[in-house]
Structure formats: structure tokens, C-alpha cells
Amino acid sequence: MTTAFVLGGGGVLGAVEVGMLRALLEREIVPDLVLGTSVGALNGAMVARSPNLDVVERLTELWDATSQSRDVYGDRPLRTVRRAVATGTHIYSPKPLRQRLEEEFGDQLIEDLPVRFGVCAASIERAAEHWFIRGPVVPAVLASAAVPGLLPPHRVETEHGVEHFLDGGLVNSVPVGRAVELGADRVFVLQVGRIDRPLRAPRRPWEVARVSFEVARRHRFMRELASVPDEVETHVLPAAGTSARDDTLLAHRDFAGVRRRIDATYDAARRYLDEQL
Fold first, then answer.
1. Three-class DSSP labels, 90-127
2. Alpha-carbon distance 176 to 6, whole Å?
3. What is the Cα–Cα distance from 44 to 219, expressed in whole angstroms?
4. From CA 143, how far away is CA 2, in angstroms rounded?
5. Exposed (0-12), middle (13-18) or buried (19+): which is 119, by Cβ within 10 Å?
């Protein structure tokens, strides 16, 4: 049996995936394949490097540190405005995230990780879904996590030449179909809870892009989920501790509920696995 962990995107809500990983690894459910998009690429790289309970402790430390320092999206409002005016493309510097990733992974190569790993990003030049399956971990994760408007497109040299990448969630936020294509016959989907939350028509200008993105993301995920062959065992793990408040304009800066979300989702995922397996 080939077991895949599919870790979806979702910014700060990606903390819930740590609780899911704890529930899975406690039951000695270990992946043969890990696929990640955006923040799921970061969490996924960690578990592909250390597919055991030690990774839960390390991820919890990293999320706690981020919640305390708030360095990733922690610039003061005036500085973000200045950067937006100066660059015309983004409001935050990618340096804090890059520094954290380099401290964690250094020059680690994807192909040298103990577990097969793939990272999804969106190529601007080819307007295409791109999968990083070899090469350094850090540039792949930075490319996958380049949230439009928040961080700049990330430049990477690939087999297609020099390309610029945006957040993988634009093309494949929860890549279930990719796991099936690669031979997985048991898939655990680690998602951040947005796919279950009701959508409503946007009422403010800044809600238009978010709602549009959610429609596209959910449509592809549900279509891929419906297309999974009957013989493939698929589990969409429940997220807990999230709400519509997490969809507001500045929610991407709110790291205050990190530990609460991890713990609540661990309890929910553990109950789900007890019932289903």
C-alpha cells in the first residue's frame, strides 16, 4: 500500500495541519509520498524529512516562534504601504520567511529527503502548474508560498529556464489528483477548514479576490475528490478552531490562535481516525 499525505494551502491556518500530523503519526500512519502547496509545502517538507513524531514537536516550536515574533507578516502598516508603492507588487519582504527556511533546511535537496516529496507552484511565464520534485527545498517552498499581493513572485531556474512563481494554491491548492496519479492507494488530505465554510457573495472590494479564489480552489478540489477511483482509500481530515473570522482582511497576520488550533484539530483528527480506521 502506498500512503500519501496531501497538505493544502491556507496561510496562518496551516497550523491545523500540525494537529493532523500528530494524530496520524501517533497511529503509526507514515507517508510514502508527501505533496504540499503553499504553507502545506512548508509543513510537508518537514514531515518528508522526519516522518515521525519528532516533526510534530519541531513544527509546534516553529509555529509558536512565528506567533511570538510575527516576523513573516509583521511589518508595520506604514512600511507595508511604502513597499507596496515602491514595488507595485507586494507589501511584505520575503526575507524573514527565506531566513527561517534556510536555517531549517540549508541546502537540503528534495530528492535526498527520506520520503518522496513534491511541491506545487504556479508558473507565471507558462501559466501552468509546476511541480518541484528535485533541487533545493528552500526555493521550492518559497515559490509555492508566494501569496499574490503579500509576497513577490519568486524567481527560480528550472528545466524551462528562469521562471517566476506565485502561490501554488492558484493552480492546485489541495492536490489530491496528483497523489492518485503518482500511485497512492491511500490518501490522507490535510486541509485547513476553508473548504467546509459557506461562501457568500462579496460585499466589499477586498472580498472579491478572496471569494473568487475560494470558488476556483473548492471547485477543483471537489472535482478531483469526486474523480478518485473507488479502490483508493481517501480520508479528508477535519480541521477545528477556525471560523469566518479567519477570512477577514487582516487575518493573515493573526497568529494568536496557533496553539489552540493545533490542539483542537488534533482532537478532531484523532476522533475521526478512531471512527474510520
1. ECCCCHHHHHHHHHHHCCCEHHHCCCEEEEEEEECCCC
2. 6
3. 23
4. 27
5. buried
CA 216-140-43 angle, to 5 degrees, is 75
For the question of residue 167 being annotated catalytic, the response is yes
Distance CA 154, CA 166 (A): 7
Given the residues 75, 123, 167, 173, select the one marked as catalytic: 167
- Three-state secondary structure call for residue 26: helix
In a 13 Å sphere around the CA of 236, the CA atoms on its Cβ side amount to 16
**Which DSSP helix (H) or strand (E) runs through 69?**
helix 54-69
Candidate list 38, 50, 123, 173, residue with the active-site label: 38
C-alpha distances in angstroms, 21 versus 28, 153, 163, 164, 274? 10, 29, 32, 31, 15
**pLDDT in single tens digits along all 277 residues of the chain:** 999 999 999 888 899 999 999 999 999 999 999 999 999 999 999 999 999 999 999 999 998 887 665 555 555 554 554 554 455 565 688 888 999 999 999 999 999 999 999 999 999 999 999 999 999 999 999 999 999 988 999 999 999 999 999 999 999 999 999 999 999 999 999 999 888 888 889 988 878 988 898 899 899 999 999 999 999 999 999 999 876 666 654 555 556 678 899 999 999 999 999 999 9
Q: Is position 50 annotated as part of the catalytic site?
A: no
User: Alpha-carbon distance 81 to 100, whole Å?
Assistant: 24
How does DSSP classify residue 85? H
pTM of the model: 0.92
User: Cell triple for residue 127?
Assistant: 501559466
Gap between the Cα atoms of 45 and 126, Å rounded: 25
